[in-house]
Amino acid sequence: MKMQKEKSDLELIQAYIAGNESGVEELLNRYKSKIYTSIYLQVKDEYLAEDIFQETFIKVIKTLKAGRYNDEGKFLPWVIRIAQNMVIDHFRRQKRNPTVVSSEGYDIFGVLEFADESQESKLMINQRDVDLRKIIQRLPDDQKEVLIMRHFCEMSFKDIADITGVSINTALGRMRYALNNLRKMIEEHNLMLNIS
User: Fold this and answer.
1) Could you tell me if 139 and 182 are in contact, meaning their C-beta atoms sit under 8 angstroms apart?
2) What is the CATH number of domain 4-94?
3) pLDDT by residue (tens digit) across 45-75?
């Protein structure tokens, strides 16, 4: 008989559905780091990431118990997609925009910060950042998701395609549409972006 660690994702899911709680426990141990990291990269808050991680697994368990999981050999991308949706739902509920922080620890939208800026230029930059966040939030969810994953989480298009469950070409197309829509909205709002 196989050890839990040797079983495939599908075997563990089937064991869990059959009543063996350790099946889902092994899946959790197997993927918790990747799932938590994908959440944390978007929310940049340990406690919030832990909450969303727990909500994600509650939803996974409910879906498995209800027999609604459709196995295509892609358990991890399916769970990460649920996590992505939970993150988006969180920000919708909070009606606020996420602060996107780079790996160096600064807000991506605060790109233009100079030591001796005048108060007026600081106000203009702050307003530009607010406008840019609002415009990004107005993108369709699938475009916004790819834009955030690519530019702010620095994910490859292959990873984005795996997580979102689409082909690489579809992910590339969504990015192209997102950038075109951003340009149009920026022009419509006469937003001055002097990012070099």
Assistant:
1) yes
2) 1.10.1740.10
3) 888 899 999 999 889 888 888 888 876 668 8
Q: Where are the beta strands (DSSP E) in 40-185?
A: none
- pLDDT tens-digit profile of 125-174? 667 667 777 777 788 888 888 887 777 666 788 888 888 888 889 988 88
**For the chain, domain boundaries:** 4-94, 108-188
CB 156 within 8 A of CB 45: no
- Both tokens of 28, joined, read 């959790």
Separation between Cα atoms, residue 33 and residue 21, nearest integer Å: 20
- Partners of 107 in beta bridges: 101
Are 73 and 117 in contact by the 8 Å Cβ rule? The answer is: no
CATH architecture of 108-188: Orthogonal Bundle (1.10)
Rounded Cα gap, residues 170 and 143, in angstroms: 10
pTM of the model: 0.50
